[in-house]
Design goal:
Helix content: under 10%
Radius of gyration: 19 Å
Distance between the termini: 37 Å
CATH architecture: 7 Propeller
Number of strands: 29
Order of helices and strands: EEEEEEEEEEEEEEEEEEEEEEEEEEEEE
Length: about 375
């Protein structure tokens, strides 16, 4: 529901836990993404404070990954105070723009966003541009517009137009979230994700413990947002990550109750349809894999699988162990790839009948301990 003030409780969440062009480093032979049986690519952001980078992996037909190249972003990674295995404490820090063939990476430590051209498992750095605020953590794209979520100084959004492989700021697009900039620890009290709705008519922002809200902005035809959002209060829920099913239901990973919840969205107002406890610790991320959804549990080292029914009801598929510090995940071609932030590992899984996950192995991403951001193509 819409509220006029924000609640800022102190909640612990366990282990919840300018423009430049450059040539690519370590280029490799490209591969095309596709269904199971075809090759593809997986991109992983390191968020390294000494120099952020995106590691590119060739995805074999059987789902296993082989390092194809490492591409510096031209910026620095960042670490929020209090974080253990999730230094950005967000979802969507690495975002793929399918329409334009671009990959966007946040550089939280230098307040910039990097734009890469994608060609199979190869990347070409096209641009590094100011994020519009302090400590960018999430990017969302729809059509010719992109928005960046900056986490510090109370949180803010900044919009861009996409053309010719570059971002151009939209005048008048900045929107302040008005969160408490002094709330601590930072990793539970900074916003978690910005996400366009599938039709591009709305943008959603999660505030985590700094408000326990989901803010919904209307998107105007010129790409600018409504002056203020509809503020949907979720007391004690610590709303963190967002996804959508094929029917347009909103799925939110809630770190407060360690649960996945579904919502109907109408006119900016979220109405809860169902909620399912994972029985795990620090449930913060959610990733689609076909008709299945997998919530990541950083404190338990696991993912929890679900299906969503036509009325938004949730059916649990069980929990699957991962390496320690489970954070972001992404799926493609019948495979799920899960970041484990404790040691910078990516776990590889085949998604079987009924959503069962079968481990295929793992790879360690150099310099990516605590990093977040993964895209599978």
């Amino acid at each position: 529901m819409k509220v006029l003030s924000r609640l800022v409780p102190a909640i612990g969440v366990g282990m919840l836990a300018m423009t430049a062009l450059a040539a690519p480093a370590f280029a490799s032979t490209g591969a095309s993404a596709g269904d199971r049986g075809n090759a593809g690519a997986v991109f992983v952001q390191t968020d390294n404070t000494a120099g952020n980078a995106v590691a590119a992996y060739h995805r074999a037909a059987g789902g296993t990954l082989t390092l194809a190249g490492t591409y510096p972003t031209g910026g620095l990674g960042g670490i929020l105070n209090g974080s253990v295995v999730d230094h950005l404490a967000s979802q969507g820090s690495l975002t793929y723009d399918n329409e334009h063939g671009l990959l966007f990476a946040v550089n939280a430590g230098s307040d910039t966003v990097s734009v890469f051209r994608v060609s199979g498992d190869r990347l070409e750095l096209r641009q590094v541009i100011w994020s519009g605020g302090a400590f960018p953590v999430s990017v969302t794209v729809h059509g010719n517009h992109a928005y960046v979520l900056d986490a510090l100084d109370g949180g803010s959004l900044y919009g861009y137009r996409i053309a010719d492989g570059h971002l151009t700021p939209i005048p008048g697009s900045s929107r302040r979230l008005g969160l408490d900039p002094n709330a601590t620890p930072q990793f539970t009290n900074t916003p978690g994700q910005v996400a366009f709705t599938p039709d591009g008519s709305r943008i959603l922002v999660t505030t985590k413990a700094n408000g326990n809200d989901v803010d919904v902005f209307a998107v105007r035809p010129d790409g600018r947002l409504s002056r203020s959002p509809v503020v949907n209060s979720e007391p004690n829920a610590v709303p963190f990550a967002i996804s959508f099913d094929r029917a347009g239901h909103v799925l939110i990973a809630e770190a407060g109750p360690n649960a996945l919840a579904t919502f109907d969205l109408s006119g900016g107002v979220l109405t809860q349809l169902a909620i399912a406890d994972t029985g795990q610790m620090a449930t913060c991320w959610v990733a689609p894999a076909g008709r299945y959804f997998y919530a990541s549990n950083a404190g338990s080292g696991s993912v929890s699988g679900y299906t969503v029914g036509g009325a938004g009801q949730l059916t649990a598929l069980g929990n699957t162990k991962t390496d320690a510090g489970t954070v972001d995940a992404s799926a493609a071609g019948g495979f799920l790839y899960v970041q484990a932030g404790a040691a910078g590992i990516v776990d590889e899984f085949a998604v079987g009948a009924g959503g069962a996950l079968t481990s295929l192995g793992s790879v360690t991403v150099a310099g990516a301990a605590g990093g977040e951001g993964i895209i599978a193509l």
